[in-house]
Structure to design on (97 residues):
């Protein structure tokens, strides 16, 4: 399995934002849904927060659309499919509180 590592420089965040980051990590660690990125582990190295996640080989939906639909999406079926999957992920978050 390949992983992606996101490194966040914590010096860029004010103290109040640390609580938001902790909450986000807690949420990510408990997510178990096909439309929500999972999360393996995080750790601090000096002032950097390292987040280890599965690698999404094709990138995000944004990345895919930026490369393949520069003029926008004209296919209504594709739009409906993307929205359906996004809304399933959002529904999961609402169900989990």
């Amino acid at each position: 399995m390949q992983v992606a590592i996101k490194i966040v420089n914590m010096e860029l965040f004010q103290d109040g934002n640390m609580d938001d980051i902790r909450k986000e990590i807690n949420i990510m660690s408990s997510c178990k849904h096909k439309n929500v990125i999972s999360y393996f582990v995080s750790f601090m190295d000096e002032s950097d927060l390292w987040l280890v996640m599965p690698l999404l080989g094709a990138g995000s939906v944004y990345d895919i659309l930026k490369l393949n639909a520069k003029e926008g999406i004209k296919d209504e079926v594709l739009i409906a499919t993307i929205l359906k999957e996004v809304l399933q992920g959002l529904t999961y978050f609402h169900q989990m509180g």
In short: The mean pLDDT is 86. The radius of gyration is 16 Å. The chain has three helices and three strands.
